[in-house]
Design brief:
By secondary structure, the protein is α/β, with parallel strands linked by helices. It is 49% helix and 16% strand. The protein has 2 domains: 179 residues, Rossmann fold (3-Layer(aba) Sandwich); 124 residues, 3-Layer(aba) Sandwich (Rossmann fold). The protein contains 13 helices and 12 strands. Helix 2 packs parallel to helix 12 and helix 7 runs parallel beside helix 8. The longest helix is centred in the last third of the chain and has 18 residues. The radius of gyration is 20 Å and the shape is elongated. The chain starts with a helix and ends with a helix. The N terminus is likely disordered.
């Protein structure tokens, strides 16, 4: 990542970083590469997410975590697994390795509870990110970084209502992901009428396209499709074309296809949760806790969104996204 973008990230987290600079023993010598990407240092943090390798969203989270490690002289080991049982095993392995801190996304909190609590019991501070924020304090985590999915859904619903949508398909791409359910629920609240959930599999985008197209063909009154994943948004655009539907497409999260889709007018807007911060800020928080017992948020989540990216601001965001930070 280009250094100007790392400096921008530091500026965004300046209050946290200033505190970090006042503690003893913070910087380590050298910037050797660690096994999971990042830098060697006196502290080792493990980042364990439920994202899939190569997923555009989680790639940006990883970029943020590893940039923070490089900036702060901390070894960051990033791993991901979409299966909650295997994700729990990765947490257990990190505990056994005696890492100094753990960052974990909790799409399925119940499946991870025992492992997260075991980490806390072992004296390892945990920061949760992205999903499961409502269970974070219950499990003993020192903080949560992400967006409130219900609030974000409400924002999306209001945007759709303002555009005149009345019959909205809400496309859920991961079964059992509580955060996605909250997005659809929030969208119903913001819209003022219930959205219609549609289950697809993010690992089968061709199948997702067919499923969305079939739904649009069977109900021509659907006037908007809200996807909850940037990769699904692109196939939703094609699905609408396949079905001969004039339904507008909106989505959560950004990738290159979504940005170009907004620029071309094929996608109305995207709800951006600024996932680079979800990677970067927890590393700062764990460093502060490890060296100075600082906590951030006062028991409330550190919110990274939502923000709306539409035709008015997409060109500015595009340059940042191409650098891997949005």
């Amino acid at each position: 990542m280009a250094r100007p973008h790392r400096l921008l990230a530091i500026a965004l987290a300046a209050p946290l970083l200033l505190a970090a600079c006042t503690t003893d023993g913070g910087e380590s010598e050298g910037n050797g590469s660690s096994g999971g990407g990042g830098t060697e240092g006196d502290l080792t943090f493990s980042v364990i997410t439920h994202g899939s390798a190569g997923d555009a969203f989680w790639d940006v989270v990883q970029n943020g975590a590893e940039a923070a490690g490089e900036d702060l002289g901390i070894s960051v080991d990033y791993q991901s697994d979409g299966d909650p049982q295997r994700q729990a095993q990765l947490i257990d392995a990190a505990v056994n390795q005696g890492v100094d801190g753990i960052v974990v996304s909790m799409a399925n909190p119940d499946a991870l509870q025992d492992s997260v609590e075991a980490a806390v019991d072992a004296g390892i501070p945990v920061v949760t990110i992205n999903s499961g924020g409502e269970r974070s304090a219950e499990f003993g985590a020192i903080g949560h970084v992400g967006q409130d999915e219900t609030i974000a859904g409400q924002g999306a619903g209001r945007e759709l209502a303002a555009a005149g949508a009345a019959n909205v398909l809400c496309v859920v791409h991961e079964a059992g992901n509580i955060g996605l359910e909250q997005r659809c629920s929030g969208a119903s609240e913001g819209l003022g009428v219930e959205v219609t959930p549609l289950q697809v599999d993010v690992n089968d985008l061709q199948g997702a396209q067919s499923t969305i197209a079939s739904s649009l063909q069977s109900d021509p009154s659907i006037d908007a499709v809200l996807t909850l994943n940037s990769a699904v948004a692109a196939v939703a655009v094609q699905a609408a074309a396949d079905a001969g539907s004039e339904a507008s497409i909106a989505t959560f999260d950004l990738n290159a296809d979504v940005i170009s889709g907004i620029q071309d007018g094929d996608i109305a807007f995207a709800v951006d949760q600024q996932q680079y911060e979800q990677g970067y800020l927890p590393i700062v928080m764990l460093k502060l806790y490890a060296e100075n017992l600082n906590t951030v948020g006062g028991g409330q989540p550190v919110l990274t969104g939502p923000g709306i990216v539409d035709a008015d601001n997409v060109d500015e965001i595009a340059d940042l996204a191409s650098a891997g930070t949005r």
